[in-house]
Amino acid sequence: MPKLTVQGVGEFDVRAGKRLVKALIEDAGTDQLHACGGQARCTTCRVKFVDGEPKNITEAEKETLKVREVKEPGVRLSCQIACDHDMTVELISRLEGSGRKDQGSPVADEIEPAPEWTTR
């Protein structure tokens, strides 16, 4: 079972394959944003990897990061990452202080859109 460490929050066991955005909300109890419902369209679910950043990336995430000009090393979309190994992240996109009324639309269990994997 992979371990998810969220800086300033704690360490959590996560079901292998669970989407990171869902693990942050359901397992870690954070207020991680996900305005588009985990569709790799909005970048509100951004996290910064401290350790364990996946080498693979979905084409959808890669394109969205490019279009939105998100270039900071280690910054990824939590909706496009499966928890399949130990990882440590820093929350950088939270409900608190965002001015939004809620965290976002419901997120499906599987990565959407259907992932086409590539490298960064």
TrEMBL record:
InterPro entries linked: 2Fe-2S_ferredoxin-like_sf (IPR036010), 2Fe-2S_ferredoxin-type (IPR001041), Adrenodoxin-like (IPR001055), Beta-grasp_dom_sf (IPR012675)
Listed Pfam families: Fer2
Signal peptide: none
Region named Disordered: 96-120
Domain of life assignment: Bacteria
Cofactor(s) the protein needs: [2Fe-2S] cluster
Domain 2Fe-2S ferredoxin-type positions: 2-95
Metal-binding found in the keyword field: yes
Alphabetized PANTHER family for the sequence: FERREDOXIN-2, MITOCHONDRIAL, FERREDOXIN/ADRENODOXIN
Family recorded in the similarity comment: Belongs to the adrenodoxin/putidaredoxin family.
Name listed for the protein in its UniProt record: Na(+)-translocating NADH-quinone reductase subunit F
Gene source species: Novipirellula caenicola
Taxonomic placement: Bacteria, Pseudomonadati, Planctomycetota, Planctomycetia, Pirellulales
